[in-house]
Amino acid sequence: MGTSPLTTAVPVGRILHRAAANLRADIDALTEATMGAIEAGIPEYARPADENYRRTIRAGVEQALQGFLNVMERRADTAWRDVYRAIGAGEMREGRSLDALQAAIRIGARVGLRHLVEFAESESLTATATGSFADAIWSHVDDLADAAAQGYAEAAAAEVGELDRRRRRLLDLLVADPPAGEEAVAAAAVTARWTMPRRLAAVALAPEAVHATPPVLAPDVLADLDRPDPALIVPDPQSPAQVRQIVHGLRRYRLAVGPAVLPAGAADSLRWARQALDLAARGIIGGDRLIWCEDHLAALTIFQDEALLASVVDRRLRPLAGVRANQREPLADTLLSWLQHNMNANAVAATLHLHPQTVRRRLRQLDRLFGDQLRDSDVRFELEIALRAERAHRPARPLAK
What we know:
Number of strands: 5
Oligomer: single chain
Number of helices: 15
CATH architecture of the largest domain: Orthogonal Bundle
Helix content: 55-70%
Largest sheet: 5 strands, mixed
Number of domains: 3
CATH topology of the largest domain: Globin-like
Strand content: under 5%
Structural class: mainly alpha
Radius of gyration: 38 Å
Strand order of the largest sheet: 2-3-1-4-5
């Protein structure tokens, strides 16, 4: 605060010192008068039964009044700053806005000024001197309000940071493998202020897609983009459109949305979402920047154990190994379509855009290659799995004709 206009008149300064001394001697009565005015003017501060709260309010009022008196005496004083930062932080934690506190500070200033005006009149101070003093007091009021606002903002930022930390911890517990206990998850949800949903979906993000600028997400989405495998938890996903809206802020990212599961299955949903990202990166499944696992359940199922899958492919497609390379894919596509269409040759021809005679010729060749295997339902099931896997591993291009 700059030099007060009061300092330009020494006699006035002496009078103000005397006024401050008189008021300081009566500080208890002045404090009670100020508290009474605040409680009458701001009902939410009136808690006569809460002694701890009244002591806190009284300490704040006393500090403000002492600050006013120090202004009168031109004393260097910064103790009030920490006090009002703490008061502002307390208001934030109580869930109130700063409006009530700032109004209380103004009420306190008016009570103090009223007493000082009475003293000024008794000492016959000029209006100019009294006005200069009032300006200095209101400047101090602004300083108090600024300190309270700073404390409020600092506490809000700290709470947001702590809440983010708790929510990241909750996400870790939900997707832990082996799973965390239900009680630990429930307790973490309470401290994270997160309502446990009936169902949820995990979202996996490609690590290389995470940018420095944090995305804008719906407030009920759990997120941790700093982990090696960035992830989200979307509560109660009702439809792809709803999930798409929730993750709208992630449109720059490559991500996969896992199937909706019970909360206890969050780790599975995330594992499937990560697998979908991997399969998409390898060209095994399609998808743009947003991949829906529920659109690729067959591929996710087939590729759960790739070593076992490779064994099935090798065993069941061995009859095609002796066929010329330029015939192998057309025969494989024909056999897969035949299995998918319940062994209907005409449906195969329509699907592959082939003449029915071409399809029948290929089917006769396949019958010679596979023989009785084609008449065993269990083998046909394994054949379809093997053929789907074989097609998924091909370079992307139109189906062979």
